């Protein structure tokens, strides 16, 4: 078994070097830049309108669901459940240790252009979604590849669906349940196997209830967990507010540092910061992966752009707000100066706990992180169960037995995650992230003209 894991780690490392290499970074950021230009910088010019008509609309109107579909808010909370996960805490912490404070700057860059990328994904998912005989909406990259690019591109849609279906077990389950097991062990001393059994029961109750039950749970869970972590993070930052200027100084200076790292080439520090910043940014907000539009396509909204603007809000709250809170806490805490680096703490989650504990009294910081990790990871598992369901449903032409079998296997994988190798699961999840983004980004570029027209028609009427 040990030899097998070594082989898996070696092969995964080679693939990971490719999917997160220079070509992937150019494709990810370049697609965001290109879409930003084609839509007239929609995330900048219409930012106020977007905020008013997304999060602001929650305080002024009552949203209704349509039959078996989700309300716009349930759709966005299901998508946010997938984006706001352990990557916002453990992933960001690991990125800063690996790439330095400068990784935070490149995370912001990926998020800025990622806002438009996710906007485009959702717009296309809404326009090219299918509606079955029962009035249920089904969409995502596999549908806008086939319906938008034509039947001859179905092979690309199938590739995305296969990668997305596999990723649901990695990024959407194993990596998350591994963090839940660690948190439950830290809080209650629970054995990983016991944690896995408990998690399997909880996830099974929700997932087997279908997308509507997932939407109902996430609409309650996501606002609570986001507000809880944001308020706790703001409190931590306020306690070290005098050091904020120095923290931002470290972020910007490290982002453009030309020093050689570990005897490497001149400017290698920038490359490390960029790679980790972009990788963690995408792992966290999922812009470009094609996962979130699967949830948005289930919305009862009819106008593509009206639902798509929620994508801008998603990336903003996920990376610009939540990831920044984690980043500043890690930098302000001084844990980066630990002699043994990340190895001193064992895991990324443990390093985040140490960061919060160094600022808050006693072990209060650890309590905040562990509670947040549990809710963040649980919500991600729930939303990714639906992403995987739609991917495998597309491949099997919605064969009920096949889809039901997927749900059962997915739920049981919670035990695999809680008892397996955490670091290897993170690495495999990274690889699957990069791989599934490729067919999606190709489709976004090919259909950019459609996105531009949707944007022009919608915002043209708002002037």
Structure in words:
The protein has 463 residues and is mainly α. The chain has one domain (2-460): Up-down Bundle (Amino acid/polyamine transporter I). It has 20 helices and 2 strands. It has helices at residues 2-19, 22-38, 42-45, 47-53, 72-83, 90-99, 102-127, 141-149, 154-188, 192-207, 211-239, 244-255, 268-285, 292-296, 304-333, 348-357, 364-395, 400-419, 422-446, 448-460, and strands at 130-131, 137-138. A two-stranded antiparallel sheet has the order 1-2. Strand 1 and strand 2 form a beta hairpin. Helix 4 crosses helix 15 (304-333), helix 7 packs antiparallel against helix 15 and helix 11 (211-239) runs parallel beside helix 15. The chain is globular and about 60 Å long.
Describe the global form. globular
CATH class: Mainly Alpha
- Low-pLDDT residue intervals, each spanning 5 or more residues: 260-266
Strand order of the largest sheet: 1-2
Helix fraction, binned, reads: over 70%
Biggest sheet architecture? 2 strands, antiparallel
Number of strands: 2
What's the N-to-C terminus distance?
63 Å
The share of residues in extended strands comes to under 5%
Q: How do the helices and strands follow one another from N- to C-terminus?
A: HHHHHHHEEHHHHHHHHHHHHH
Helix/strand-derived category reads mainly alpha
- The radius of gyration is 21 Å
Average predicted confidence as pLDDT: 86
CATH topology: Amino acid/polyamine transporter I
Number of helices: 20
Tally of structural domains: 1
């Amino acid at each position: 078994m040990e030899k097998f894991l070594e082989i898996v780690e070696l092969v995964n490392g080679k693939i990971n070097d490719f999917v997160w290499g220079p070509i992937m970074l150019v494709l990810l950021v370049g697609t965001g830049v290109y879409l930003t230009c084609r839509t007239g910088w929609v995330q900048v010019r219409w930012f106020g309108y977007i905020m008013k008509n997304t999060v602001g609309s929650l305080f002024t109107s009552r949203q209704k669901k349509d039959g078996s579909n989700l309300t716009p808010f349930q759709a966005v909370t299901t998508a946010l459940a997938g984006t706001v996960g352990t990557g916002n805490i453990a992933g960001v912490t690991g990125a800063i240790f690996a790439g330095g404070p400068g990784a935070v700057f490149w995370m912001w860059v990926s998020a800025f252009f990622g806002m438009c990328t996710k906007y485009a994904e959702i717009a296309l998912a809404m326009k090219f979604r299918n509606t079955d005989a029962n009035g249920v909406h089904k969409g995502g990259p596999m549908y806008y590849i086939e319906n938008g690019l034509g039947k001859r591109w179905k092979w690309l849609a199938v590739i995305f669906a296969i990668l997305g279906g596999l990723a649901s077990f990695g990024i959407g389950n194993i990596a998350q349940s591994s963090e839940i097991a660690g948190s439950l062990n830290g809080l209650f001393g629970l054995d990983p196997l016991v944690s896995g059994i408990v998690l399997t029961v909880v996830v099974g109750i929700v997932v087997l209830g279908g997308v509507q039950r997932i939407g109902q749970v996430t609409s309650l869970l996501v606002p609570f967990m986001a507000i809880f972590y944001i308020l706790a993070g703001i409190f931590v930052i306020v306690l070290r507010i005098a050091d904020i200027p120095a923290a931002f100084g470290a972020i910007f200076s490290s982002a453009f540092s030309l020093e050689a790292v570990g005897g490497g080439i001149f400017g290698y520090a920038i490359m490390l910061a960029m790679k980790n910043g972009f990788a963690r940014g995408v792992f966290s907000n999922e812009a470009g992966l094609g996962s979130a539009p699967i949830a948005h396509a289930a919305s009862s909204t009819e106008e593509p752009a009206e639902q798509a603007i929620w994508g801008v809000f998603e990336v903003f709250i996920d990376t610009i707000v939540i990831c920044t809170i984690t980043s500043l806490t890690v930098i302000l805490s001084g844990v980066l100066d630990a002699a043994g680096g990340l190895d001193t703490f064992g895991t990324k989650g443990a390093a985040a706990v140490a960061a919060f504990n160094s600022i808050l009294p006693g072990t209060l910081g650890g309590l905040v992180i562990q509670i947040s990790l549990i809710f963040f990871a649980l919500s991600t598992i729930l939303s990714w169960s639906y992403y995987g369901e739609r991917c495998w449903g597309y491949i099997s032409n919605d064969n009920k037995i096949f889809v039901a079998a997927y749900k059962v296997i997915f739920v049981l994988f919670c035990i695999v995650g809680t008892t397996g190798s955490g670091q290897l699961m993170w690495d495999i999840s990274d690889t699957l992230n990069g791989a599934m983004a490729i067919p999606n980004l190709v489709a976004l570029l090919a259909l950019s003209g459609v996105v531009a027209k949707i944007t022009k028609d919608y915002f043209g009427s708002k002037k």
